Amino acid sequence: MITLNADEARAALDLPSVIEALRAMFRDGCEAPVRHHHAIAAEGQPTATMLLMPAWLAGRYLGVKLVNVFPGNGARGLPAVQGVYLLFSGETGELIASIEGNELTARRTVAASALAASYLAREDAATLLVVGTGRLAHLMPHAHAAVRPVRKVLVWGRDQAKAAALARDLAGQGFAASAAADLPAAVAEADIVSSVTLSREPLVRGAWLKPGAHLDLVGGFTPEMREADDDALRRASVFIDTPGALQEAGDIVVPLTTGVLRKEEIRADLAALTRGEHPGRTRPDEITFFKSVGAAAEDLAAAMLAYQRARAATARPTP
């Protein structure tokens, strides 16, 4: 059995390769039941969530990710998401890999956003606004830069000191990065807006989006969480990662419930985009709206990639 810690998973999962692994997985498909989603009471802090996410390719691989999301961890200096991925042989059921789940989750999540942007963002999109300052905010510029010519990065966070620190880090990594104090102005400037927060109230207003902008909503994963308002949906062509967003994403569930959005108005998911069943962006001035909640298929694709690379490094045949 192979065990990959966070550093080893990071080395095996470069973002361009993960994006292409996800593209192939969504195009070709796999079996991925609805994930188990359990609220966990945590005394003195926000309610936590336990997720169990299985997926398999018959006769090849099967796996499951176990994830705990503790929103109160930020106050402890810990990541909100903690998890592990277990990969099994699809022939025998034996455990063949254990992969640190936080790195795998972060990288497949930003890769899914970049995959969507490869169909939905303007080809000349060069300015990215990242809303949030956590783990995903550090990776999101690199992911979008793998598919679009992103050079300028604006960072907005409720904690301006954290936003400034992240901007300095990104500047050191080659981006023209700066902290944004004025969120409406930053949204209005951006070609791509990626929101990676655990907000329960809309942060991004549709009225602020410029023609041709692409809005990428990543952080919310329950019906009670929202990162954008109803106007963003009214002005945009709406896309989702998987049908799971219809039940789990507050940015989709609430507008469906109130009648702001009708199910038939959702243009496509990532499977349809990767299979060419929908063209994605159709006009330069079109505003596109992408909501992801994460999918077990993404985890399986990333785990397979990490495992196969680890096996290749030791010159052992893969099952």
Q: How would you characterize the overall build of this protein?
A:
This protein has 319 residues and is of the alpha/beta class. The chain has two domains: 2-104 and 297-313, ornithine cyclodeaminase, domain 1 (2-Layer Sandwich), CATH 3.30.1780; 110-294, Rossmann fold, CATH 3.40.50.720. Helices cover 36% and strands 24% of the residues. The chain contains eleven helices and 14 strands. It has helices at residues 6-12, 15-28, 101-120, 135-145, 160-172, 183-189, 230-235, 245-248, 250-258, 270-274, 296-313; strands at 2-4, 36-40, 48-57, 61-69, 81-89, 95-100, 127-131, 152-156, 176-179, 192-195, 214-217, 237-240, 266-268, 288-291. It has an eight-stranded parallel beta sheet, sandwiched between helices. Helix 2 crosses helix 11 (296-313). The longest helix has 20 residues, at 101-120. It is globular, with a radius of gyration of 19 Å. The protein starts with a strand and ends in a 6-residue tail after the last helix. The model has no long low-confidence stretch (mean pLDDT 95).
- Give the CA-based shape: globular
Kindly state the mean pLDDT as a whole number?
Answer: 95
CATH fold-level name of the largest domain:
Rossmann fold
CATH architecture of the largest domain: 3-Layer(aba) Sandwich
Strand sequence of the main sheet, in spatial order?
Answer: 9-8-7-10-11-14-12-13
Instruction: Please give the count of helices.
Output: 11
Give helix % range. 25-40%
Encode the helix/strand succession as letters: EHHEEEEEHEHEHEHEEHEHHEHEH
In the CATH hierarchy, what is the superfamily of the largest domain? NAD(P)-binding Rossmann-like Domain
Main beta sheet: 8 strands, parallel
Distance from first to last alpha carbon: 12 Å
Class of secondary structure makeup: alpha/beta
Number of strands: 14
Strand fraction: 15-25%
Uncertain runs = none
Integer-rounded radius of gyration: 19 Å
Query: In the residues, how many domains can be counted?
Result: 2
> What is the CATH class name of the largest domain?
Alpha Beta
